Amino acid sequence: MKSYIGKCPKCGKLILPLMRKCLGCGSRIEYLTKTDCSHCGNCHRALGSDEYCRYCGTKRGDGKFDPYYNEPQCIYGPPPVRRLHTCKVCGYKWDTNVMIDRQGYCPKCGGSCSIIEEEEE
Question: How far, in Å, CA of 15 to CA of 6, rounded?
Answer without folding.
Answer: 6
